[in-house]
Amino acid sequence: MHISRRNILRGTVVIGAGSVLPTALLATPASAVAAPTIASCVTWGARNPSSTLTQLSNRPNKIIIHHTATANATTYTQAHAFSLARAIQNYHMDSNGWSDSGHNFTISRGGYIMEGRRTSLSHLTSGNGFVTSAHCPGQNTVGVGIENEGTYTSLLPPTVLWDRLVDLCAYICQQGRFGASQIYGHRDFVATSCPGNAFYARLPELRAAVAAKLTDPPPTAWSTIVDNTSAGFRASASWLTSTYSTARYGADYRYATPVAESDAAYYSATLPEAGTYRLEVWYPANAGYNASTPHVVFAAGGSQTVSVNQQTSGGAWRNLGTFSFNSGAQDIVAVSRWTTGTDYVIADAVRITRV
């Protein structure tokens, strides 16, 4: 696999110091959690999306709880629930300009669960993939958005809504293979009152109720480290070996001068399954190392480049980000020499963790 200058320069993101993300609590799929009854978009009479929805290969890794901020209706019929779903979709498409309902699922105050954005239900049922949504900036490719009918700034949702929410969250956790600790409120990610003070205060209870339904214990997250001395590492003879810095990982590390050609140091691994993985790098920082070292990630959806300042924050794991990969043996990330300046680029170690 070769790295082109176009791939190096495309979509570059610079990571800062200390940007390590917490490991998600994973859960083995629990066969005891039955699929709740969910009305599809066709069933409740949804409009067709105004444009093609982006389908993803990764499964979601969290749930985000919303309230609709609409009236606390006392009509609990299925007809009312379906009317609510249509009204939300109309608002999201006609007022917000979105291509479809922004969220993935809706629960009415009468306890009816409905699909929101099209293909959310098929992805959930199969336990594979996800659809890019629009309910929470920064989380729309990894977070399942659940709208709960009503306004819960001071009131709590009806028992029937709560019970269906527990059922739905447990099933989502099972299918997504993550734990109840990954249930959040909308306000955890953006400045909003959603899902209301009263509802938000009850989220610990929701997590506990969902965890109780996930009867199988969570396994240890899969993780592997590929050092520059590992079988999964390869580089040309132009990459020299050094023991200069005591902040290295392992016995030594590799270094090379910048050059405008494809001569990268590659880290490969055999991933146990298709899904989402967090990538972290270890390097010994030094003022003489490169401030913009390209790390090319060979994600399932295409190569992505993350630029790392190797002059600072060395001697620790530094987060590159979370990416989708297919299963099996493959190149995961490459440290490229195609950058500016004359300072050395460093290839030391990479840690890969399933999330």
From TrEMBL:
- Show the coiled coil region(s): none
Name all Peptidoglycan recognition protein family domain ranges: 36-190
The Enzyme Commission number assigned here is 3.5.1.28
What region holds the N-acetylmuramoyl-L-alanine amidase domain? 48-196
The record's keywords, sorted A to Z, are: Hydrolase, Signal
CDD domains, alphabetized = CBM6-CBM35-CBM36_like_2, PGRP
Q: Name one GO molecular function term.
A: N-acetylmuramoyl-L-alanine amidase activity
Q: Which Pfam families match?
A: Amidase_2, Golvesin_C
PANTHER family attached to this UniProt entry: PEPTIDOGLYCAN RECOGNITION PROTEIN, PEPTIDOGLYCAN-RECOGNITION PROTEIN LC-RELATED
What family is it from?
Answer: Belongs to the N-acetylmuramoyl-L-alanine amidase 2 family.
| Protein name (Swiss-Prot/TrEMBL) | N-acetylmuramoyl-L-alanine amidase
Q: Which organism is it from?
A: Phytohabitans kaempferiae
